[in-house]
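anyone seen this seq b4? input:
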Amino acid sequence: MRQRRCAALLLCAPLVAGCGTVRRIAFAGHSRPAAPLQVSVWSGPRAVSLDPSRLRPGPVLFDVANQSGRPQRYVVRADGGRLLAQSPAIAAGQTAQIKATLHGPDSTVTAESTVHGGDAGSLAHSARVRIAGRPRTGDSELTQP
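predicted toks r here
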């Protein structure tokens, strides 16, 4: 019995000694990531509109409503034409969400019509989002429990 206690003490001593010695990470001076901004995208038969159309750099969640009467694929491109995000084909009357991180100075949301559900499409309409100001952080946002 005494040997078991000694063996248990020898095995558990390093574990107990290690408790509480973990160094804490200091978060002071580090910004939290920003929550995504919601941007409404409405696509009709002749136009695409965005609300709001001016944003600060950071993550964006585009809520797309396709009211064009035909399937559409939506693309978010940077000013130089670089692809940031795209949606699958959205049926007429349906909605979807696209997530992208916009850095600025300008980004464009483009609606492309799909041909028989395929990947080939022709440029239909586009709307421009203006990106200006300093990047957003989540430091001033309330945290959820």
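Helices lie at 2-18. The two ends are 48 Å apart (CA to CA). kinda curious what u guys think
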